[in-house]
Amino acid sequence: MWEFCILCCGCLLIPLYIFAALLVPAGLALGIINLHNCPIDPHLPLWLIYFNGFVFVRAIISCCVSCCCDKDGWCAAFIKNVVFIGDIVLMILGALYLFPLINSVNFEDSADLKHFCNKPTYIVAFIEIAWAWLYLFVVIAICGCTVCLLLIGGSTPPVGEGATSDGAKHYQFMGYVTATAPGVDLAHKFIGRGERSGDIEMR
């Protein structure tokens, strides 16, 4: 059951990543172009620039960590988790900027300019915040299912003395699906597993 939950959540991450690849450049461009075109809250275009720029920086950092750092070392885990926390902070700020404006925002130039905001800028910001919170929910679901799998499989070593073929498959499967979700390494360390499941070979 838990394997099925992780598989479903892991598969959901794929369209989320594809959607982000299309949305992030648009959000960054709209934030720059309409930097002074949202008087109802000037922070909103700035948030689009910071959030989408951070996504680009995060992708570069992830590539550098994969190429230059020991994937199992504390340095890589620290960097990934700090970046993930930065994502959460920006998501909270975006929600605080956007949601109070829902009932008062105006998209017509000829109307009350005090409550005006460029429509594409506002809509893209709304979509990006919704996407970010959905992504966070999926990651939390994957981490939760991973913890349950680790607890359930704790009595069956994946490798070494007492290992079984089913146990090895169990951990290998889990490693493949959870490899794309930030924060899963913390789940492994929390339960006390020294080895990452994705690195375990079937015996």
Automatic annotation (TrEMBL):
<feature type="transmembrane region" description="Helical">
    <location>
        <begin position="47"/>
        <end position="69"/>
    </location>
</feature>
<dbReference type="InterPro" id="IPR040350">
    <property type="entry name" value="TMEM272"/>
</dbReference>
<protein>
    <submittedName>
        <fullName>Transmembrane protein</fullName>
    </submittedName>
</protein>
<keyword id="KW-0472">Membrane</keyword>
<feature type="transmembrane region" description="Helical">
    <location>
        <begin position="81"/>
        <end position="102"/>
    </location>
</feature>
<feature type="transmembrane region" description="Helical">
    <location>
        <begin position="122"/>
        <end position="152"/>
    </location>
</feature>
<keyword id="KW-0812">Transmembrane</keyword>
<keyword id="KW-1133">Transmembrane helix</keyword>
